[in-house]
Every structure is written in structure tokens, then in C-alpha cells.
Amino acid sequence: MSSPVVEIQIWSDLICPWCWIGKRRLERALRNSSLFADIKVRHRAFRLMPELIPLPVIDVLQQRYGGSAEQIVAIQQRIEKIAAEESLIYRLVGTQGADTLQAHRLLYLAHRQGLQEVLLERFYSAYFSEGTPIFDTDTLAPLALDVGLERTAVAALFAGQDFIAEIEDDQRRLQRYGANGVPFFLMDGRIAVNGAQPIEAFSDALAQLNADAASQSAFFLR
């Protein structure tokens, strides 16, 4: 019997440091697993700071959660070390936060052209590793062109309103699943991993998916 196909939906925001970390942990779990012959991944949008203009992340976090600048920097440095364990280079101190709507729209466009995964990685590395703002069209367009999106398609996207409704629906769907933050991973619409959990949590979820698929196959063979 062939291995089952699994569909994984990932809700994330491009400025959430835990989202790239969680993505890497899922990828490690998938590499370590031979349970599935085919894995389809779809990235869904979540906006942590809708309609916010670019501001220093430290200022945004202080306004939302309190704490001193020194405490926030210490947390950022701790996250940088955790990211390094996943072979990710983070430079969080001094970053800005803002609405990522335009970047998510580009990811939707990239999905149509089979480039969503590579563009997502480009956005993550630009923001977390290179310190590049990913909020306005002037900085986003070159990143999109880097991975193969067509200049005319990018310009047309920014000139219109495409994918805004889909992005808003992504956010509502996540809330219907009972989650209010990211990253959030949904496997075959049934098994969820909430947050950048250790790799064991992803491995356990994949094993449960495989067990469920095996049980269903056994039922139909009776």
C-alpha cells in the first residue's frame, strides 16, 4: 500500500520570529519521517499588526506588553540563540514592525505561480537576517523579482486589490480553529500544532496522521 498524502496548512506572519523557527522544526520532522510519499504545504496569512505603520519593534512591544527596552532586547537575544539552533541567522535588535498585508498579497500571487515557498523564505531572510523592511512596495518588489515573479504581475498586484479578501478570510479561519496567534500548523484539517513546538510535537502529529490513515484503510479493506 502506498504512503498517504498529507496536506499541511501553515498560518504565519512574516515578522513573527517564532514562525520561521516553527517552519524549520516542521521541516526537520518531515525529513526524519518516511511516513508520507507526498506532502502538500499551503501557507496562510496572519497579520500581527494590521494597519500599523513601521515602528521599532521595541516600541510596539512596550506599548502592548510593557517591560523595559532592556528586557525586550534580552528576549530578542534569547530568540536569536534559539534560531541559531535551527541554523537561522536572526538580527532582531533594531528591527521594525508594521502591517504585512502587501507581503502576504505577494505570497498569494506567488502561490499561483508555484513560487510561494521560495518567496516566503526570501521574505524571512530579508527581514530577520538582513534587516530589510518588508512593508512597502518599493522594498517588496525587488524581493519578489529575485525569486522569479514577473515585474508586470507585481505592478498589477500593487495597483489593485487582489487577494485582500482571501487574506482576511485566512485570519478569520484561524480564529474559528480557536487560535489567536501564530505559527499554527493544521495537518489534513484534523491535527493541529499550535506554536513553534519542539520537533517531537511535529513528529507525534505526523505519526498520529499516519495511524489515522492506516485505521481508515483497514476499515475499507474489511
Automatic annotation (TrEMBL):
The gene is frnE. This is Polyketide synthase. The lineage of its organism: Bacteria, Pseudomonadati, Pseudomonadota, Gammaproteobacteria, Lysobacterales. GO terms for molecular function: oxidoreductase activity. PANTHER family: GLUTATHIONE S-TRANSFERASE KAPPA, THIOREDOXIN SUPERFAMILY PROTEIN. Signal peptide: none annotated. It comes from the Bacteria. CDD domains: DsbA_FrnE (cd03024). InterPro entries: DSBA-like_thioredoxin_dom, Thioredoxin-like_sf. Residues 8-207 form the DSBA-like thioredoxin domain.
